[in-house]
Design a protein that fits this description.
Elements: H1 4-19, H2 26-46
Helix pairs in contact: 1-2
């Protein structure tokens, strides 16, 4: 299992990547959006 810090780093990285101009391709954007959402769920569940 990854540490909370590792998950948070990945989450922040993905947020920045999704905001960049290079990630405007629809398929890539959708893939990263799903991955970002999954990481967010992991973070929320660990803090409940």
């Amino acid at each position: 299992m990854r540490s909370e810090e590792e998950v948070r780093e990945q989450y922040e990285f993905l947020k920045e990547e999704l905001a960049s101009e290079e990630m405007r391709h629809r398929g890539v954007e959708e893939l990263f959006t799903h991955y970002k959402r999954a990481l967010g769920w992991v973070l929320e569940e660990e803090h409940m």
